[in-house]
Amino acid sequence: MLEERGFPAGSVRLLASERGGARSLVFRGVSHAIEPVTEGSFASVELALFACANPVSEAWAGIARAAGALVVDNSSAFRYQDEVPLVVPEVNGELLERCPALVANPNCSTIAVVMALAPLARAVGLERVEVATYQSVSGAGSDALEELESGVRFGLEGDPPPRRDGRPAYAFNVVPHIDRFEENGYSREEMKIVWETRKILGLPQLAVTATAVRVPVRVGHAAAVTVSLKQALTADEARALWASVPGIEVVDDPLRERYPTPLEAAGRDAVLIGRVRRDLSQSRGLVFFLASDNLRKGAATNAIQIAERLLGVSASGVRPGRAAEIR
Amino acid sequence: MLEERGFPAGSVRLLASERGGARSLVFRGVSHAIEPVTEGSFASVELALFACANPVSEAWAGIARAAGALVVDNSSAFRYQDEVPLVVPEVNGELLERCPALVANPNCSTIAVVMALAPLARAVGLERVEVATYQSVSGAGSDALEELESGVRFGLEGDPPPRRDGRPAYAFNVVPHIDRFEENGYSREEMKIVWETRKILGLPQLAVTATAVRVPVRVGHAAAVTVSLKQALTADEARALWASVPGIEVVDDPLRERYPTPLEAAGRDAVLIGRVRRDLSQSRGLVFFLASDNLRKGAATNAIQIAERLLGVSASGVRPGRAAEIR
After folding, report:
1. Class of domain B109-295
2. B108 catalytic, yes or no?
3. Structure pTM?
4. Distance in Å, alpha carbon of B175 to nearest chain A alpha carbon
5. Given a cut of 60, is residue A317 above it in pLDDT?
């Protein structure tokens, strides 16, 4: 994504733990060895992009900051700390103007949902939000994708077996379990949608509920969303609002089979919104469906947009000569 | 299902159109030829089970009734006529006591949803219901299942192609389009959930909204459901209510990976309910997830339960010697 967006990195250093994975990656046609991360790894690094599990971010983000690097972290380790901005640039990018040393990149489903909610919140205000997700298996990592593929191969001949850890199969199934469970009966993925939607929109009291469900899709998260608005909007008014926002594409002509699907969203940066309709069950409600690429806008694209804005560079790369660090 | 439930049919006649499909079916170890339906087909038939498209039911149900047969119809042709009872026996089976000549069998997703809603409605009353479905491809018929299978085989090697009719692939995708679209932006499948939930529960003003989505699953429909109640219920109270109802099984121990999934529901008659929790976003709300076999409780099982009650027979078959007609 850094290469695709023309990110103006002067030099790049790739860091990882010792175990597993590739030993090198090609960036702009040059093979870069992946080095084991050490205390000295962040010397003279301007920007560090963290894409790792919470304990790794917790262990190393402070070291990177102490060495002078700006940190954009894709884990959930710092997202709920009041002093850490949680940013979707199109929604609350102004938080980057005071140049925070650490910025958290939000949850993959939440990014798409707040992209859709923010224009409604600004135009008429939100009262309540309800989300049911259809999340792809790539969100659970590459091992999970392999389990989906092997489960599908088995499942073509008979019932797909449970996963290696004994949990229900991904293949030919839907599983209402993402991340661990909290004491209130919600999964942590569901609570991330609640907490992060409130924080990113700056609406700490917003009523939000979510059900997070894994579906046998490779890439692309979708969601059915219902909102209660402070003032009524027609479907046409909502579509017009969304169509004017960068990063959103309205795909809504169901009679011509045009509506958001994960297959259509995969490989693209836009959040697709469609199936927009007035909610029959309440006076100021709106119902819609969205899909976005969880690996792009749900993760890498959003993180790099944050980095671009932190460093004052545009996507076309107007400030060359700066160094960027990739993890 | 007639055989499995010991339905006390004296004799059975299998009727179909001339085109396609099997030429015979085995019932209780005996091969029965499938005959083309004619005006005379329903002579001396006591019960006719219709499992066909609306125009076929519209053309032949009246002929069957005129010949003296009781009709249980699985199409949606008669569901919305005031004088036709729409029945889920555990919910509004008392409508069968006045022995109507025609009974409509409800939509597959709606049956599972009203099974879950009815005990809540009776105990504390409902204010509003919101449903997002995860519906299996068998609900679209056997051709659709073949498209899922071939799409999955293609999809293991690259992107699954669109369906033969140009619509988005089922394989490795989710598609927010079931049945045709209405002028209000809802699909007809979504409106069936609205209309039929109100009719079966006897609550014509109930606020209901739904999003109906096809997922790459063979058998088993699931749904994320949120209800606003007239009086608050805890998750434990709701689980206790459901556990006391025949036809419902509470599967709700997420820390031990116990929650409803379509793979677990497939092949069973029970509606599985789990992931029960107080709704964080409203004071008297409850959120839960359900799964049921759309071919059994969502179709055949429910139709046969209706027939059993119409004829005054129990599932174990206490009134032998009556004739049943299967289409």
Report:
1. alpha beta
2. yes
3. 0.95
4. 6
5. no
